[in-house]
Amino acid sequence: MTPLVAILMGSKSDWPVLETGAKVLDTLKVPYEVRVLSAHRAPDALADYVKGAEKRGIEVIIAAAGGAAHLPGVAAAHTILPVLGVPIATSSFQGMDSLLSIVQMPSGIPVGTVAVGKAGPVNAALLAAEILGGKHPEVREAVRRYRENLTKEALAHPDPREAA
Amino acid sequence: MTPLVAILMGSKSDWPVLETGAKVLDTLKVPYEVRVLSAHRAPDALADYVKGAEKRGIEVIIAAAGGAAHLPGVAAAHTILPVLGVPIATSSFQGMDSLLSIVQMPSGIPVGTVAVGKAGPVNAALLAAEILGGKHPEVREAVRRYRENLTKEALAHPDPREAA
Amino acid sequence: MTPLVAILMGSKSDWPVLETGAKVLDTLKVPYEVRVLSAHRAPDALADYVKGAEKRGIEVIIAAAGGAAHLPGVAAAHTILPVLGVPIATSSFQGMDSLLSIVQMPSGIPVGTVAVGKAGPVNAALLAAEILGGKHPEVREAVRRYRENLTKEALAHPDPREAA
Amino acid sequence: MTPLVAILMGSKSDWPVLETGAKVLDTLKVPYEVRVLSAHRAPDALADYVKGAEKRGIEVIIAAAGGAAHLPGVAAAHTILPVLGVPIATSSFQGMDSLLSIVQMPSGIPVGTVAVGKAGPVNAALLAAEILGGKHPEVREAVRRYRENLTKEALAHPDPREAA
Amino acid sequence: MTPLVAILMGSKSDWPVLETGAKVLDTLKVPYEVRVLSAHRAPDALADYVKGAEKRGIEVIIAAAGGAAHLPGVAAAHTILPVLGVPIATSSFQGMDSLLSIVQMPSGIPVGTVAVGKAGPVNAALLAAEILGGKHPEVREAVRRYRENLTKEALAHPDPREAA
Amino acid sequence: MTPLVAILMGSKSDWPVLETGAKVLDTLKVPYEVRVLSAHRAPDALADYVKGAEKRGIEVIIAAAGGAAHLPGVAAAHTILPVLGVPIATSSFQGMDSLLSIVQMPSGIPVGTVAVGKAGPVNAALLAAEILGGKHPEVREAVRRYRENLTKEALAHPDPREAA
Amino acid sequence: MTPLVAILMGSKSDWPVLETGAKVLDTLKVPYEVRVLSAHRAPDALADYVKGAEKRGIEVIIAAAGGAAHLPGVAAAHTILPVLGVPIATSSFQGMDSLLSIVQMPSGIPVGTVAVGKAGPVNAALLAAEILGGKHPEVREAVRRYRENLTKEALAHPDPREAA
Amino acid sequence: MTPLVAILMGSKSDWPVLETGAKVLDTLKVPYEVRVLSAHRAPDALADYVKGAEKRGIEVIIAAAGGAAHLPGVAAAHTILPVLGVPIATSSFQGMDSLLSIVQMPSGIPVGTVAVGKAGPVNAALLAAEILGGKHPEVREAVRRYRENLTKEALAHPDPREAA
To answer: For position H157, what pLDDT does the model report?
Structure first.
């Protein structure tokens, strides 16, 4: 299947963080591709990749980065596909640097930013699927089932003192 | 035209902040509706509105809020449409409270967050249009022209010391 | 005994944090109930529960949450019982996100917020008991004895270098 | 009428901030008294006042302070009445100092903290009234009407572009 | 020897942090006493102790606290002896709460604040000794020797790659 | 009269901030001198001045600075007189940079830090006077009267609604 | 004269901030050129410009940006000339976003960052001149004279109370 | 070979942090020297060392420090060589104190600051080499090869799911 989502990260070491998001896309049967592409160490390759994404059928780009986290913003500068940014927690400022570097984009070049922490990659994947849902009804229904399951699970054990 | 985007805010006083985003949607010829709906003062009306949005043809929800900015997250809890959050700057913590209350959503319920400050409403509108672009080619082309104009303007005056 | 206090949390995993507060209520012989109710994953169930709390005899609601911690504020939006918010520390921003999402409530919908950290759940329980004390003299006296014990213990070992 | 609420502040200059809260109590017909009492410049007078509050019929104490905002915590140390803390915004750290000095109380001595900013004094008054509502049915009903009005007003003008 | 310095802390658990400061006073042969005295759990005992300190010969008070760290400020409110505040690091906000609660004292009641972290207790002890040095020449000379040793040690190993 | 206190600042433009502290010393009849001495632009002159301070009769040094506020720490590096640091509010980080640059001194070289904001210079002057009070009984009594006046004023108008 | 320094900014509106730095280069007789080049709105033009800078004789690049301030980092990704970053203060987070987005660059692509605030552009220009000084003796001597003048001015008026 | 770069640190315990930067200089064949020199414990030795650096052939100074990190700024005050500051992460404020103490230098005395965290020392070394590259062509070419290798490595494994 042609990938609809591209998951980009600056370094291979970011993969364990992003893998939880990829698994959500697997669950929702959304085809995706994954690339290590650095805004700083390989800016031209990143630009080429992102510029070609729309033609290759990519509909949403998820980009994760930490510190002076330029990857999502630089990707957004080269495309008019929706770009979602995942701020990766850093050892120094707990991801506040990553968050501000991603979310405070200037007027004209948006990045839809999700949470620092475990929820971030999962929610980037879900938001990508919600976006795809507008055009792909089967993805919308997959998201609907995912949400219904979430609600069921949330209501399954109303008393936290019960055995698991 | 049936609105494709809903712009929600907690209070009428937020409108001047959000109006710049609405104007971007006007420019891009994206039909939208605007509602004052408080997550705190009128939670049931908000829930009803958001639950009915998908059936009424809304494809993207933009929600703006400040302080303990629950509006985007509460909206997201009631829909599987993509929800974009606009953190409004506050007098106390400059919008850091708004930003964290919007972006740090828990796993399962995403909100795509844009910048605190002037760029926020503009970029929420552009991101909504980029999302719509996947299904509505005329919106995609409108975004493409918008971006090309941005680039042209950015390059028009390379020397800032020249007269405007 | 009919519960006078409801302790709410968004996820079962929050229970170990809140259990210290429940134990304080045990000590003070204040009857309470405990519920896992998510503002995001099960918003309707939360609304139903909170709307019915007053009639069922609940007099104070304690709600704990982390990150974009909407639970206390959403609970407060559905009741005029006093709601106390417990910000749970997060791995990313140490609970600053939780604190601001809970304490910065807009005009009209108050949440009485306690500390991030170990003291939070204990103090939410004590504050609930102090509130109940206005109507229930035996709770007031239980709080009085609790406080007197605290003072005694604080004065028992004036020199920290002595053996415990 | 015997005052049920005491509104304390460290300096006369805090009154304009707190007056909005006092007006809410007026609206709700909750009798209150107001005192300037400094935790730092007049600690003994503060201790005497707070120790005598319960016997004099005070049921809730609201204490506002800024900077190293000790007033609410010191008041709480001298009473088992519920104490609500209002962090006043400061010119230096926008009230972050006030907020942390009030909300981070140690285990055993709770202060229910409300927002930094305009909503703080209003919400402290409302929370005090919600607390009183447990014992004083007419205050509960006054709060109920207040909340119903809030909801009505919030829904009165769904379109912010309409003339006021 | 009559103690010249009082080292106060809110809880016995703070002693390991403060012990490094006490050892500096031992090295400088400055007599001191140590007390656990809580501004919140035993405010009257604290007030009594501090009010009597000047007459009992105490010349400098060191007070350490964490979170809503009121101990140094409350001590300062009851004496005109110099009070030095040691902000203890907290698990939640790394001591930023402690620092702001101690250093942002209002006009009229000073607390001389030292660092959050390991250097804090040591420097509080040294500053106390520098203060005592104005009246007690033997303390001044002890501080002078301490400083000269610091400088010698700092210069002893100019190349960090050498074996220790 | 020989100055007992030296008030140092990095730039003439800091004088309006520090003048309130100087006036407190005037009130307490503590002789002082004032110098503009930059840790960065004139480091040798600063070192010479501070090294000679003790012999010239200075007993306490007050140093104010903003931003990367090195003046108090560099002064402290050249003397064993007590050094008090006044963090000046900055336009960028509201004095958080100044505060951390002054208070987080390393082990061995203490700076007693006071508040960012209006209270800072006043409290540095009062703390200097409290320090001098150990050796100079007339200064101690002047501080005692100052404090008694503060208390009187704080109690003079218990109701903030009264006309001034 | 061939420019040795390039001053880049994302928007013409940044020029008033950067002009003070350009004036320092004028004073030091360092030839420079100025360009408006956006990392987000015109990324290809920026890449082309920066890639060609070394060959055209540029020896140091100064890049200023605010918010998600990617300009300095993106410039650094395209050159091995030294890049100096000037974080521009923002209305929302006072430049903390700009600072972290510039200074927290990943390993391999350095940006030498200067202060947020008035000192930033001046110091970027001086640091550029200090860098040029290694190869251009006349620039080194110009910096030396500039520094000597700074010291002279700093020492000219030791008493801030004197008339200007 | 005469050292071209001086790496300074306040304490031997900083060496493990800085060693990664030194190794980069080794790779680039840039000769350097390393010194432990404290701005606070041995200010005169620091001043002497830095004042003599230019004559001894040093062309760039790298200075690392944590907390109230004065070393880079004090070094910069004594030389017109370019000074690069490396903020060392602290246990209390994660290096935010170090960062602000280094980067917020006043007008006239620049310090080029690099990242808090692992990238800091590496990037200080690379920036030093980029600076040296203006005058020493072999260093420029070494940096060019280093960068080309970075890019190659960044592109070597585009799919993070592949075995390493």
So the answer is: 87
